[in-house]
Amino acid sequence: MAALRRSPEEGADGRTATLDEETRVIDLASSSVRELNAELHSPAARRYRVLSPRGTHAVAVGIDDDIDVHVEGDVGYYCGGMNQRGRIVVDGMAGPGLGENMMSGTIRVRGDASQSAGATARGGLLVVEGKTSMRCGISMKGVDIVVGGDVGPMSAFMAQAGRLVVCGDAADGLGDSIYEARIYVRGKVGELGADCVEKELRDEHRAELVELLTAAGLTDIAGDTGALGEFRRYGSARKLYHFTSEHAGSY
Q: Is the model's pTM score more than 0.85?
């Protein structure tokens, strides 16, 4: 089908003034990803179903509106990149760069994700219900990432801010050259990266875990005191960059 166009009711800046409450359907078997993204950049509806993605790259990138996008199938590189405000669900697997540089909103993948999920992301919530490959959360700058399974090597490499929760195992190099991001891992952890150390898990961190797991929909873990007790916290030893106590509130 051809890409769906915006409604005639639009503001002076060309953005849609009112959004249709009916779900719109775009089938990538007959529409291009360029047409899809053009529609999502100036949406006429609040909810979208995207059919037949078949591993297509750059699906639902650059969203800047309060809309729901349900992708029914696997996606390729950079799905949900630069997302702001959008709520994206992928019923399938995701390729490299999922949610790269996302600013806000949510992205949920019901399968696994490839490398560099959430790279450089500054805000919002990224949930991968399965596992992720290497460099999950690389250079993250404020995003919250919750992974239901394992993460690959060098996850949270150079992570500056934000929170990474891993409900499975973490491979070698976790938190290498980390700044002030916080990492929680329930399973086994390989060799830690440079300047990453295990830290005390205090009551405020348990409360933070409950908040993140609940937001990710993992309420069975969030409500299980025993499961919460299996998590360990990791962060920066603060030996690889200049840290001063008078600026501690900025970190």
A: yes
Residue 117 near residue 165 (C-beta atoms within 8 A): no
pLDDT tens-digit readout, 86-101: 999 999 999 999 999 9
- Contact predicate 125/103, CB 8 Å: no
Side chain identity at residue 178, one-letter code:
I
Percent of the chain as helix, strand, coil, to the nearest 5: 15, 25, 60
* CA–CA distance, 129 with 216 (Å, rounded to integer): 9
Give the residue from 216, 95, 121, 114 showing the smallest Cα distance to 165.
Answer: 216
Residue 12 pLDDT greater than 90, yes or no: no
Angle subtended at Cα 88 by Cα 180 and Cα 157, rounded to the nearest 5 degrees: 25
User: What integer pLDDT is reported at residue 246 of this predicted model?
Assistant: 64
* Maximum separation of any 2 CA atoms in the chain, in Å: 59
Query: 86: alpha, beta or left, given left = phi > 0 and alpha = psi -120 to 50?
Result: beta
Residue 2 has pLDDT above 50, yes or no: no
- The beta-strand segments (E) located in 10-90 are 24-27, 47-51, 68-72, 87-90
